[in-house]
Write a sequence for this structure.
C-alpha cells in the first residue's frame, strides 16, 4: 500500500505542476492511459490471490478516482485562468456592428426623396414639413372638402377619439391622409410668393399590392401673382424627364377633379407594355403618374390669401409609386417588410448621387 501512496503523491504533484491543458493531458495519459502507471498496477491483479486481488483492486480504484478528480480540478483551474487571460488581452468595441461583413445600403424611399428634392430644388422649391397628426380643418375643411365627402369616412381615414370638450368637426383628430395639409400650414404662416415641396408620410386604411396603410407623398405648391397652368405643365414635364432620365418623354394632362384645385388634371407619361414589360418613354401607351391643378380660390381664402391678387398651382404624387416605376419594384408592401435581402438588392450605396443638376 505504501507503493500506492507514493505513486499517488507523485502523480498529484505532477498534476499540480502542469501549467497548461496539454501538459495536464500528458500527465493523465502517463498515469491512467493504456500504458500508464496505474493501469500497469491493475494489470498485475491477475497474479494475486483472491483476497489480495480484492484489497489491491479496491485500493487502485480509489487511486484512479482520486487522480481523476485531481486532474479535473486542475483542468478547471487552468481553463478559468486561460479565459481570464484571454479576457484581459482581447478587447471588444461594442459600438461596432455585430456583423462587420454586412454592408449598409440606403433605402429606395430615402434615395427617391433625395432625387426628387434635388430636381425641384433646381427649380427654386424649398422643403416644408408639418405634423402627421392633424385636425379636420387642415386635413379637409381648408382644402375645400365638403362635410359629406367620401374621403372623410372611416374606411379611408384613421381617426383618433374625439377631443374632450369639443364637438363636431372641431373634436376630430386624425392621421393625415395626404401631405396637402402642410400646404395649409405654409400658406397660413408665409406670405406669397411661395414655392415649396412637401415630402412625408401619409396614412389611409388600405392594404394590397399597390396600397399600404402608411405611404409617402411628395406635394408641391407654388403661389404668386402670375402663375398659370402652363407653368405647372412645364414644371412637371421637366421633373418627369429628369427623374426617369428620358429627355424626350411624352406627357399629357387629362381633366380630373380634386376638391382643392380648379381646374384639376392627371398627368400621364408615355410608355410601352409590349411583352408584359413596362418601359417608360417608349411605345404608344400611357401611364398615370400624378395629380395636379390650379389652387382653388376657396383654399386660398381659407388660408388668408386673397384669390383676387394671388393664384398658384399644386401637385402631388406617391413616392413609392414613382420609385416602383423607376427601379422595377413590383410590390409596394415589400418597402416595409425589413427584408435585408430585398434591401441589398434594391438599396443604394452611400456614394450614389441623385440626378445631375439642370444644365
Amino acid at each position: 500500500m505504501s507503493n500506492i501512496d507514493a505513486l499517488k503523491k507523485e502523480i498529484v504533484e505532477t498534476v499540480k505542476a502542469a501549467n497548461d491543458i496539454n501538459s495536464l493531458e500528458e500527465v493523465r495519459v502517463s498515469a491512467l492511459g493504456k500504458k500508464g502507471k496505474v493501469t500497469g498496477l491493475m494489470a498485475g491483479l491477475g497474479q494475486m490471490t483472491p483476497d489480495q486481488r480484492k484489497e489491491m483492486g479496491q485500493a487502485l480504484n480509489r487511486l484512479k478516482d482520486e487522480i481523476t478528480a485531481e486532474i479535473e480540478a486542475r483542468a478547471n483551474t487552468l481553463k478559468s485562468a486561460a479565459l481570464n487571460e484571454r479576457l484581459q488581452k482581447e478587447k471588444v468595441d461594442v459600438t461596432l456592428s455585430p456583423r462587420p461583413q454586412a454592408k449598409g445600403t440606403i433605402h429606395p424611399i430615402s434615395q427617391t426623396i433625395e432625387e426628387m428634392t434635388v430636381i425641384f430644388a433646381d427649380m427654386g422649391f424649398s422643403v416644408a414639413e408639418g405634423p402627421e397628426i392633424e385636425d379636420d380643418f387642415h386635413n379637409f375643411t381648408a382644402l375645400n372638402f365638403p362635410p359629406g365627402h367620401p374621403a372623410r369616412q372611416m374606411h379611408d381615414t384613421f381617426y383618433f377619439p374625439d377631443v374632450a370638450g369639443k364637438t363636431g368637426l372641431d373634436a376630430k383628430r386624425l392621421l393625415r391622409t395626404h401631405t396637402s395639409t402642410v400646404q395649409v400650414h405654409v400658406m397660413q404662416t408665409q406670405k406669397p410668393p411661395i414655392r415649396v415641396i412637401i415630402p412625408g408620410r401619409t396614412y389611409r386604411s388600405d392594404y394590397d399590392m399597390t396600397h399600404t396603410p402608411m405611404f409617402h407623398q411628395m406635394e408641391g405648391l407654388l403661389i404668386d401673382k402670375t402663375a398659370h397652368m402652363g407653368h405647372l405643365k412645364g414644371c412637371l414635364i421637366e421633373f418627369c424627364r429628369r427623374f426617369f432620365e428620358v429627355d424626350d418623354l411624352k406627357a399629357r394632362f387629362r381633366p380630373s377633379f380634386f376638391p382643392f384645385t380648379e381646374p384639376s388634371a392627371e398627368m400621364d407619361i408615355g410608355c410601352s407594355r409590349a411583352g408584359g414589360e413596362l418601359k417608360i418613354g417608349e411605345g404608344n401607351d400611357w401611364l398615370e403618374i400624378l395629380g395636379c391643378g390650379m389652387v382653388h380660390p376657396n383654399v386660398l381664402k381659407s388660408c388668408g390669401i386673397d384669390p383676387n391678387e394671388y393664384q398658384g398651382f399644386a401637385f402631388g404624387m406617391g413616392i413609392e409609386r414613382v420609385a416602383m416605376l423607376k427601379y422595377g419594384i413590383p410590390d409596394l408592401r415589400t418597402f416595409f417588410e425589413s427584408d435585408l435581402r430585398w434591401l441589398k438588392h434594391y438599396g443604394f450605396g452611400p456614394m450614389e448621387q441623385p440626378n445631375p443638376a439642370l444644365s
